[in-house]
Amino acid sequence: MSKNVLIITGDAAEALEVFYPYYRCIEENINCTIASPVKKKLQTVVHDFLPEMETFTEKWAYKIESHASVDEINPADYDGLIIPGGRAPEYIRMNPKVQEIAAHFLKENKPLGVICHGQLVLTTVREYIKGREMTAYTACRPEVEAAGAIYVEKMLHVDGNIVSGHAWPDLPGFMREFFKLLNIREKASV
């Protein structure tokens, strides 16, 4: 039986963190729905580093259609959730339905993959992440810790049903671990 995975994101999501999981799910014959606060064509971005800058740069990337607004989503219909990073988590986390969806996966102990700045969404449902271990993009550490979670200085970390990744270069391992939690793979393969 095919699995159903939900990706919740919005404009200014990190392009690789949306496209890579989306296409990997399709490759594995997993039904994958992209939902955003408003059903629309989303503008993704690319973050990267330049030697002369102390922080990352941002450029526009490909657009991608969201299949549904978060208000149309019943989280009980999905086996797993992925929350990409970029700047999208900064604003989608304020949406009560996004909070409800994230809380559902944590309460029900369903596979939840969160990467880079995506952990900012989980800080709005702090009662479900208190004492949980996760990694995130380094600049998100204060928010992760303020929400009561334990920040782990690793590029990839698994704590129960949560797979957390530091940034887009960690996507291959992130997706292997997420697929293990979805029980579609016995062993990770490189």
From TrEMBL:
Superkingdom in the source lineage: Bacteria
Ranges for domain DJ-1/PfpI: 3-180
Coiled-coil ranges (or none): none
SUPFAM superfamilies recorded: Class I glutamine amidotransferase-like
Entry-linked Pfam families: DJ-1_PfpI (PF01965)
PANTHER family: DJ-1 PROTEIN (PTHR42733), DJ-1_THIJ_PFPI FAMILY PROTEIN (PTHR42733:SF2)
Family: Belongs to the peptidase C56 family.
NCBIfam families xref list: PfpI (TIGR01382)
Designated name of the protein: Peptidase
Organism for this UniProt entry: Parageobacillus galactosidasius
